[in-house]
From TrEMBL:
The keyword Protease does not apply. Residues 1-32 form the signal peptide. It comes from Nocardia caishijiensis. This is Secretory lipase. Pfam families: LIP. The lineage of its organism: Bacteria, Bacillati, Actinomycetota, Actinomycetes, Mycobacteriales. Keywords: Signal. PANTHER family: LIPASE 5, PTHR34853. The keyword Signal applies.
Amino acid sequence: MHEVISKAGRAMSAGVLVLAAVVMGLPATAQAAPETPGRLVSHAAQPAGWGEWSRASIVEYSTEAVTGGTTNSAGLLLLPDAPAPDGGYPVVAWDHGTSGLAPHCGLTTSKAAHERPLLQSFLDRGWAVVAPDYLGLSAGADTVHPYLHTRTEATATIDLVRAAQAAAPDLSRAWAVVGGSQGGHAALATGNLATDYAPELDFRGTVALAPESHFEEILSRLDSHVPNLPVVDRMVGPFAGMLAGLRAARPDLDVNGALTERGRQVVDAISTSCVGEFDRAAGTASLGSLLARPIAEGGIGAALRDYMVVPTVGYRQPILIAHGATDTVVPLPMTLALLTRMRSAGTDVEFAQYPGGHEEIAVESHERVLDFVDELLA
């Protein structure tokens, strides 16, 4: 289960700590046009044993496009073996960690193999699970994945819950969201938007494990003078992914103009890569070598903050954030800063700290998470 949020760890590593110091001082239904967000497009039940799941389906649905309008995306629907209780299966939406940017990097391709122990524990509690690929990570996607884009992480999650209601009538309207790493970022975005975006559902609360936050504060300060240090340059792949996503979300900005020729090559390569290929795609490039001018210029720094900031106000349901003290992928001080901002804004947040790092948080917090969600869905 430690692999649930560990893939990003190999791509980002302890460079965050140094960088922060440097720069901050089968059968399917008929196809339908994607007209309304959350509309079920197709529901393909998978044979028992697919991905070792006994009751799995791939749900294709309409959701918000990153530049407006709608597009299609996909996700998993997993059902418990036990019969549905009165009122239907409560639903847990799982938001996964960094998997890449290409249309073969989602859970519908991987069959959620890395997530299996955690998601099975949800099923064992009698909860149905929905798990979005996120925009751009499903087969046939018409856009690069807008990596860490707050809005579409949330809408992709909520719209899958909506579509799953049509795919499986034995689901309850009550649901909660859990996510780790990038998925922690997505879960907070989802929890902030859920009630207003889908008032017909009964949203109960949010769990975020080691959520990515405040990277925009660091990255918006970068320029070509970032020291060429190996520990810092482990951030090249994730940073290029954020720029690739911003470039897709904001075609009105001259993101390419902020990049050197080498920088454009790396961003292009990351755009077609899964997370395990980030190092190969980045090659020997350093962070500084990507940039032709400071990110803050041309409105890109401000746009990056708008693109990926974690909301601090507007939550109406309970929130649990869990983080490891020795996390070097998303260092603990970044979440402590987020907690300070949220609480200063009047947002009530439960916080649990554990001794391990990014890869261990899902295991160390497991019982606390199950108990918290159980209370939400009771």
